[in-house]
């Protein structure tokens, strides 16, 4: 259920659904998603679906991970910030692409589990237990910022946009009317202007304030 064939099938499915960046697809093929979830769910690891990871949170759907990764790949980032470590899977995919990954998580227990996975898989990621709304200014500016929880309003990511390098790109799910959420892409152009684009409708758990153990 976790064999290379099953993973290859997921990659083919992502390709059929519009993911075209080969490096992104290769990273998804390489990172063992089944090791980022509870063993009881491992048989579903290569389905294109979000799965529970405890504390009411989820490991994102592979297509969404791929779409966000592909969006930031386009600016060839060296240093990236992820907000919402969760299982650690998205961070591992970014690290597999050779990016220097920084990730912030507000739930201590999830962060501890993710760190264990990074260690046992030999993945180098800098992480901290904090409210990711604040970004990680000491390590900024970042060439890319990936937010993996939905902001209730676009203004909530303004502080993160400030930590984007020139030429850098942020992708974040932002809530709209009703239950709708859109994946928003913001690029800081060379002249300092910000360019905004909506990439896709998505479903994420909410971006919340404050810390939990
Ligand atoms: N990238 C994760 C997705 C996890 S779901 C993965 O690949 O598994 C989103 C995560 O964002 C949750 O773990 C949630 O606790 C975290 N989160 C929500 N609001 C946050 C905030 N303000 N700062 C940091 N993390 C946050």
UniProtKB/TrEMBL annotation:
Catalytic activity: [protein]-L-isoaspartate + S-adenosyl-L-methionine = [protein]-L-isoaspartate alpha-methyl ester + S-adenosyl-L-homocysteine
Catalytic machinery residues: 60
Record InterPro entries: PCMT, SAM-dependent_MTases_sf
Gene3D superfamilies: Vaccinia Virus protein VP39 (3.40.50.150)
Top EC category: transferase
Family: Belongs to the methyltransferase superfamily. L-isoaspartyl/D-aspartyl protein methyltransferase family.
Keyword Plastid: no
Classification via NCBIfam families: pimt, PRK00312.1
Described purpose of this protein according to its UniProt entry: Catalyzes the methyl esterification of L-isoaspartyl residues in peptides and proteins that result from spontaneous decomposition of normal L-aspartyl and L-asparaginyl residues. It plays a role in the repair and/or degradation of damaged proteins.
Species, as recorded: Stenotrophomonas ginsengisoli
UniProt-recorded name of the protein: Protein-L-isoaspartate O-methyltransferase
């Amino acid at each position: 259920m976790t064999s290379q064939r099953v993973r290859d099938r997921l990659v083919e499915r992502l390709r059929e659904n519009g993911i075209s960046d080969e490096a992104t697809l290769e990273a998804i093929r390489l990172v063992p998603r089944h090791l980022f979830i509870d063993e009881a769910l491992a048989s579903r690891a290569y389905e294109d679906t979000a799965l529970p990871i405890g504390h009411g949170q989820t490991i994102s759907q592979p297509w969404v991970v791929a779409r966000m990764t592909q969006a930031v790949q386009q600016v060839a980032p060296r240093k990236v910030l992820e907000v919402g470590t969760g299982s650690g899977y998205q961070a591992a995919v970014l690290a597999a692409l050779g990016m220097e990954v920084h990730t912030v998580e507000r739930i201590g227990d999830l962060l501890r589990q993710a760190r264990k996975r990074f260690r046992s898989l030999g993945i180098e990621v800098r992480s901290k237990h904090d409210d990711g709304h604040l970004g990680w200014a000491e390590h900024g500016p970042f060439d890319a910022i990936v937010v993996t929880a939905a902001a209730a309003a676009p203004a909530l990511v303004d502080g993160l946009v400030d930590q984007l390098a020139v030429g850098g790109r942020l992708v974040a799910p932002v809530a709209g009317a009703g239950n709708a959420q859109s994946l928003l892409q913001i690029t800081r152009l060379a002249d300092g202007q910000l360019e905004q684009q909506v990439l896709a409708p998505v479903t994420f758990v909410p971006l919340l304030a404050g810390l939990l153990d």
